[in-house]
Amino acid sequence: MRKIGIIGLGHVGRLLAHDLVTTDKVDQLVLIDQDDDLAVGLKADLENAQTALMTSTTITIQDYAALKNADILITAFGDSQLLKEHQMAELTRNGQAVEEIAPRVKQSGFSGIVLNISDPNEAITAYLQQQLALPPKQVVGIGTTIDTMRMRQAVAKAAQLSSQNVSGFVYGQHDGEKVFAWSTVTVNGQNLEKSINGHHLDQNKLGINADLDNWYTLNGLGYNASAVVVWTIQIISAILGSGELSVPLAIYQPQYEGYVSFPTLINRNGQGNPLLLNLYPVEEAAVKTAANAIQQQIAILQQGGEEND
């Protein structure tokens, strides 16, 4: 039985619930939000949609106890409109959300994998792990997965190739101190120092183009949803399946003494082995800078939590 919980039913949470149900990725779905009417409405809407499907998903709402035997818990709370103020505007608000939900999740007896898609992703993921007291490998965040895919797409467009031909990762911090690790990027096995498909690729321009995709989405829609949901489902499929997926998730990395976005394998046990690729010295230093920034954000959350005790 594939059982998944989602806490937070904003744009991303609702779209994720819809896609999980309509693509037969879940047998039991637990939906939780601070707005009771929203949860009731979403359940009715999804159940109506199932009249056109050959599959059936059991949907439970507003019941933390139902999380006890869930395989995966997705945390998707937040207000993307705050990002128009500044990149880290959601930090305090989402930290408070963690403090509110963590005792109830712990009380439920949940012991599965937590996948956080709330922002700032790395800091909130770390705070969730602390508050839930689960092993770090069981609490991961989507991290710089979408940043990485935007980077690969920017490279592919510049080289006039499919993004499937591009590999490489963005490290560090989503929507913060992210690190375009060009040392890891290859196109058809060639690094960017060589002419690719007859094109010389400017790394600075590639980074700008990758960031522009994020700006266009937030400016036009006011939120990011589709890419986040599609990649969340890819990660869910890896956890529920028998294979492994390599993505740059927000994970606990001992060498940085905390959470940071870093390429890793994800499987049914949660975080697998990290991918230890050789970075340029300047890239390694930039990842350390990102890790320090994340630690400062966590300190802010911890201080706020102590004041609320």
How does the helix and strand content classify structurally?
alpha/beta
Give the full name of the CATH homologous superfamily of the largest domain: Lactate dehydrogenase/glycoside hydrolase, family 4, C-terminal
| CATH class descriptor of the largest domain | Alpha Beta
Largest sheet: 6 strands, parallel
**Count of domain modules:** 2
Low-confidence stretches: none
Overall morphology: globular
Helix/strand order: EHEHEEHEHEHEEEHHEEEH
> What is the helix tally?
8
User: Cα distance, first to last residue?
Assistant: 38 Å
Q: In CATH terms, what is the architecture of the largest domain?
A: Alpha-Beta Complex
| CATH fold assignment of the largest domain | L-2-Hydroxyisocaproate Dehydrogenase, Chain A, domain 2
Q: Name the beta content range.
A: 15-25%
Determine the fraction of residues in helical runs and give it as a percent range. Answer: 40-55%
Q: Using DSSP, what is the number of strands?
A: 12
Largest sheet: spatial strand order:
3-2-1-4-5-6
- What oligomerization state is this entry in? single chain
Describe the structure.
Helix content is 43%, strand content 22%. A hairpin with a 2-residue loop joins β8 and β9 (190-191). The mean pLDDT is 93. It has eight helices and twelve strands. Strands 3-2-1-4-5-6 form a six-stranded parallel β-sheet, sandwiched between helices. It has a three-stranded antiparallel β-sheet with strand order 7-8-9. Strands 10-11-12 form a three-stranded antiparallel β-sheet. It is of the alpha/beta class. It folds into two domains: 3-141, 3-Layer(aba) Sandwich (Rossmann fold), CATH 3.40.50; 145-299, Lactate dehydrogenase/glycoside hydrolase, family 4, C-terminal (L-2-Hydroxyisocaproate Dehydrogenase, Chain A, domain 2).
